[in-house]
Amino acid sequence: MSPHRERAHGGAVRAAARHYGIPENEWLDLSTGINPHGWPVPPLDPEVWRRLPEPDDGLDQAGRAWAGAPASAGCLPVPGTQAAIQLLPNLREPATVGVPEPGYNEHARWWQRAGHRVVPIRPDNPEPPLEQLDILVWIHPNNPTGDQHPRAVLRDWHQRLAHRGGWLVVDEAFLDDPGESMAPFAGENGLVVLQSLGKIFGLAGARSGLVFAPQALCSDLEERLGPWALPGPTREIMLRALADTHWQNRNRRQLREQSQRLRTLLQEQGLTVTGRTAKMPRFS
Prior knowledge:
alpha/beta, disordered C terminus, 7-stranded mixed beta sheet
């Protein structure tokens, strides 16, 4: 078994099917939060497969427009937010970093690997110990619990950390409400926002993500990624998906309706829903 499987990530239905002797088509994978009704990818111009990716294709402007980020913000397309999660810790000297637990465990792993001291924090904590932290990583909403704080609270945390040179890193891979995103404040010192097209758009296989942060930080991250990090076909798919506002609006309505339906079904079976996003009810 490969090392990343030992960290108990989602997916890997094929391996589970082999292990338990149950055919793949009989599994319902609830482990990843990927939209099963994803954006319909159209045929691509064959030329995108035959030439190197073009970094001046306007993808950064499209990303800002979609996320509501200001023109002053850096916007770096990345091969999935996982790439940024692995590289961001190398942009800071060893520091004290707060990370939600439980939460997506790659955050803690890569900050620790880069020599930082990681402090676990409950994702439902109304007030992390900001005075003890140099950096706070916050999964908004949290994976797997669905806990979510109002944007005004995150805004306050960011300002308090930035006032003394700290960072707030907000992982919005599971966020389905643009009105709660921190991207509109991207570009301000001390704020890093990670967004993914893999979950909402159902494009996990394209490995498509965006980092919103100050321009200098995005430049440093891009330098570590190296040239042509994001394949040309993925860039083309992202450009088209981000521009398809009709599908996005319809998708949000569909997710809300399906979430409410699942919530009702769970409650009818005596289960209490304790946290949610449009895609991720949590119950006890």
